[in-house]
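2024-03-11 09:14:02 DEBUG pipeline.ingest accepted 1 chain
2024-03-11 09:14:02 DEBUG pipeline.ingest length=398
2024-03-11 09:14:03 DEBUG pipeline.predict start
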Amino acid sequence: MKEGILLIALINTANSGDVDHTRGVMNVLYGRLEPNYNIEKIEMDVKDKEAKSFSNELESNDFFISKYKNFNKVVTYAAGETSLNHLIEFKDKFPKTHIIFGAHQFFKSLISSNLPNIDMLVMPKYAINSEQESIIKQYGVKLSGTFGIPHSSTLKKLRESFEQRKSTIPESKKYLLVVLGGDAPTPEGIIKYYTKDEAIYLAQIVASKAKEGYYVLVTNSGRTGLHNPFTKEKLAVHDESVVNEYKIDEITTAFCKKLEQNKVEFRLFDFKKLKTGQYDSSFDALLYTVSNNSESIAILPAESSSMITKTSDFLKADKLVVYNNNAVNQVHEAQVRLLNDSNRINYYEVTKNGFEKIKPRKNNNDQNIENEIIKSDAEIVAESVINQFVKEKSYITK
């Protein structure tokens, strides 16, 4: 048996934000541990796989079993509610692994039988109240609190994405990057909707700003226009593999139509899943475009926790506008308020008069918060994992 660490990432490629979260943490963990420890990393996709069947299949997978048995320490990480059951079943089949679960908010399925099987819970500090923190401590689960959502992006990766897609981005003196909002669940599982009316009104605000000489770069997410808000039905959008004739969702269509009516120069970069199963997102390339242009601005929806975290890591506050909308829940609000208070973003309410800036709160509790947000969220989590599960006297280094 090797004296070392096997890092296992369980990902669900149906959820790009959770995948980026998991890879971000695992990349930092590997980078920190590799110089001093025998270490290996495995990534497994649980998409469209029933949790129990997935673990049962692994029991007969000779390649995986040989890896699992050959390392004296195993750390398994997953993020997002759709991966939680897979993580729990994995722990049941392979008990020597340390289980770490990352989430955006404290949802119901964490309580009951799941929480006792998790060794460490990774969650933003703003997403947990005192009652939930007491429940976590009651079960003996370690908590790694972050300021936002971990991600895997680096400036180098953004630049590489830009180089691959720069031919699709029109040349301009300055850009206005606009990300449309999308439907999002509350911690209780209730879906809140980003509406067509909101998108049309946002387009009117953007059209007014574009008159200052901006070329508008429009993108969305897999949540944009995902549901019929009246029937609550999930729609076949952003996925080439489930429709004969691919159509852009109604929310994005309404936004772009309003820009056209106002004669705004723009280009849409539609987020979609290709028939190959891969996701086609231009966000990183567009973010690099804005970051590399001193006069450009990004406008993001307040319910997009992952995008906001990533963007605030690469843009200064004077280039980053976050707008409130109907899909924002109390956890989203807590995140953007924290970032607004720490001068990481500019947070705006959408009113009948357009964007109205929400002033940062200043009190004894958040005066020093800007100085606290120094390390990336992935680095914060990696350090928590190393301190809790790696630094043991019995551990042998290279």
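2024-03-11 09:14:41 DEBUG pipeline.report Residues 393-398 have pLDDT under 50 and may be disordered.
2024-03-11 09:14:41 DEBUG pipeline.predict end
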